């Protein structure tokens, strides 16, 4: 995500805030928790409380982090939130071998769940993404990744049927 941010620096309105959001967005992560983003945003605000970089928009950083929970735009007015979410899902649009390695890491992350629990939950996540009108919010990443991402998600979903 940091590499993608650097590649798009000229398109980002608040680059420092976006970098902090990337850095902190999964800093607190427990695979069984539904509060990771909220906790990560709170942690970021705590750590950045005394950080003095010009007029750092800490509220924006928090909202950017929170937007990764449901992959919905929370910060309007520029495309920073769109880019953050597109960077976060960029893995979906990679070639199948790269994506497959990612899915193996996801399975390992949830290894505490037996297949009879994991598979239906994973299918629900995959179907949720496939049901979205669009996976990517920026034209750039929609054009780059949308088609391949949908193929990858569907291909993985088919493995569970």
Automatic annotation (TrEMBL):
InterPro entries per the UniProt record, alphabetical: HD_phosphohydro (IPR009218)
Name of this protein: Metal-dependent HD superfamily phosphohydrolase
Annotated organism of origin: Polaribacter haliotis
